[in-house]
Specification:
The chain is of the alpha/beta class and 137 residues long. The protein has a single domain (2-134), classed as 3-Layer(aba) Sandwich (Rossmann fold), CATH 3.40.50. Helix content is 45%, strand content 16%. The strands form two sheets. The chain has a three-stranded parallel sheet with strand order 1-4-5, with helices on one face. Strands 2-3 form a two-stranded antiparallel ribbon. It is globular, with a radius of gyration of 16 Å. The chain starts with a helix and ends with a helix.
């Protein structure tokens, strides 16, 4: 609904919607006017994150340390596929600070891999790499 309302044509939310990749937009106590679709109730947001965390195979936590720590504490260390194959859950935390990843490591979330950079730079570079990969040779 939000995609049509805002007439989005690109971006991470647009791509997730188009590819049917689940995501949770959880609000913050400081939000003064969240985007449509943001879950502003902390308990409801946690419930939504838990649903996806149980099934996740790869998680990208972008910029908010408290949300990254919250979802990191919910993630299993591995998933078992329908064929019985065991694989790790990949968890990448993109942030300017090491604080969030350090907290996760101290609490036993060893699979949290830091990408210490500005989220905007990360997304711009990711987009360039992915779009270049989709170009015909």
């Amino acid at each position: 609904r939000t995609i049509e309302e805002l007439q989005l044509k690109d971006g991470i939310i647009y791509a997730c919607e188009r590819k049917r990749i689940p995501y949770v937009l959880a609000g913050s106590i400081r939000d003064d006017g969240p985007l449509p679709g943001v879950i502003t109730d902390a308990c409801q947001a946690q419930d939504a994150m838990r649903v996806h965390a149980r099934r996740a195979t790869t998680v990208l936590a972008l910029a908010t340390q408290l949300h990254a720590i919250a979802v990191g504490n919910m993630l299993p260390g591995y998933q078992v596929g329908t064929d019985g194959t065991v694989r790790p859950v990949f968890f990448y935390v993109v942030d300017m600070s090491e604080f969030g990843v350090d907290k996760l490591a101290n609490r036993g979330s060893q699979q949290a891999l830091p990408i210490l950079t500005n989220v905007q730079d990360f997304l711009v570079n990711l987009r360039h790499k992915l779009c270049r990969a989709e170009e015909p040779s």
